[in-house]
């Protein structure tokens, strides 16, 4: 029997997941500009849902309405499938540098912090018994500190104690594939690397690898960041990945940004 998955939103990460599954013999249907199905063509989507045993969404909630478009249009048709959802560790909000794991309440539960639409979508997918993959900053080919340094867009912001978690795109793919192959139970899984670190440390390592002098330290005001970027710097947390390792048997190929950047170089 052919293994068949429908992916909603064939973007940066999901397209790599699709490629990995095709290599393993999966039939893949997908919506999005790179997909083969128009999201608004309900007949085509429902035909693909009929054929698919697995469904994964990488579509974020609408920025203006806060509505999850996949759940709004097709949520009731998903109940008989294995369901996956690519979420964000932003659902945990600011934790002042503390560690978070899957038992940490999200801002949808506490009512505090930013990204409420994402947290509410995360909660809605959890209620559908999805495997919800909570992802920190994603980097990979053509999307890393190396590219920002080369393009002259890298910055170092002077915020003492500020740390982020991140994950290489290939490690997201291996985590999702592991969840499929192991028949992992529904629930949340953090897929992040082993070493939360400041954005400055990552930029400095990229500069070292490229032989470029790091950009000067700036204050938040001097950096003149967008509102979205300022919101990103307003949060500080370390994301624990122990559940994914324990339950999925997952180990990141790039356990820290140092291996990840070197691999990209």
UniProtKB/TrEMBL annotation:
InterPro entries from the UniProt entry: NAD(P)-bd_dom_sf
Keywords: NAD, Oxidoreductase
GO molecular function, one term: 4-phosphoerythronate dehydrogenase activity
Enzyme Commission code(s) on record: 1.1.1.290
Coiled coil stretches, renumbered: none
Protein name in the entry: SDR family oxidoreductase
Annotated organism of origin: Altererythrobacter rubellus
